Amino acid sequence: RAPVHVRQPAETSVYAMSDRDILFTIERIVERTLTVETEVDDNTLERDFKYKHTVEPATITIKGPRSLANRVHEARVIADHSGERESFTITERIELVDVDGKPVQGLEMSTDTVSVSVEVKRVKVVPIVISHTGSLPEGVTIVNERIEPNTIRVQGPDEIVQNLENIRTESIDYSEMNVSGERKVGLQFPEGVTEDETIEPVYTYNVRTPVDRDMIIGRSAIELRNPPEDTNARIGDGNPIVVRLSGEEEDLDALRENQIKLYLDLDGLQAGTHEVQVQMEPIPNLRFDPEAFPEIRVIIDEVTTENME
Q: What is the DSSP string of 208-225?
């Protein structure tokens, strides 16, 4: 409080005073630096879109009486996204508010507007598709394969993500898949598209590898094909033939000996003794090495009129 002193003109006097003193407050002028916060009306947001705000300048300075400056809870701008599906930049006015969201006035600001850049991206969940390269090793077959998780949420420009149907894994080399197993795999994203969630896809695969089995076939079961005319051909004595077959175990278990057709092709041979390589007719779903069969002795005798008598 301070007393009131009155100066009156000459030849006058003060008759009455309402107050003998006046109450007033003296405050220090202070400055504060505030980060500019962005608030969004949820009703203006487009469904399936994601927004990222960048404010420039990011901070402002306010100046004024300490009591007013300390009332300020935040400096905010309210961004309107109505109908926006592409990135944009707008200029917005700053509002100083207290903890209850009520405006605080009577302060100076280093600037009363900011530039708000809004990055807009469409968000979408798409399936993950397994991508392959190479060929399986001979005899190996895929029983089943899967990727977990089998979907991913991605983000990117509206015109790209809207038409995106799937995300492919990095190429998995079939030629390396000799045994069942699992591995982490990367994903291939189109330009401008990124994942909106962090995942580590795991590729799991089960393969069936071939089984080898030896079959013993006696020489008497070998067929002589295309013998020369007027000859009598016979197979020389010796050990039975070992036939090594490769395939899936159930196919080998179902195989019967009479399904194994060994033969010698005598086409073009003349009477005499010859070493001829054993051959075999193909068997569905089973494999063998044709070069692994031995050569065996074949005796071809001419059939004369005298022999016929």
A: E--EEEEEEE-GGGPEEE
Cis bond before residue 210 (omega within 30° of 0): no
Residues facing 224 on adjacent strands: 264
Q: Which CATH fold would you assign to the domain 211-308?
A: RNA Polymerase Alpha Subunit; Chain A, domain 2 (2.170.120)
Q: Tens digits of per-residue pLDDT, 59-98?
A: 999 999 999 999 999 999 988 777 778 888 999 999 999 9
User: Which token pair is 284?
Assistant: 């569905």
Residue 132 has a pLDDT of 93
Dist. CA 303–CA 232, nearest whole Å: 6
- The per-residue pLDDT for range 136-184, each reduced to its tens digit, is 988 888 989 999 999 999 999 999 999 999 999 999 999 988 889 999 9
CATH annotation of 130-208: 2.170.120.30
**Distance between CA atoms of residues 224 and 298, nearest Å:** 9
Domain boundaries, the chain: 20-121, 130-208, 211-308
Superfamily of 20-121 according to CATH: YbbR-like domain (2.170.120.40)
pTM flag (> 0.70): no
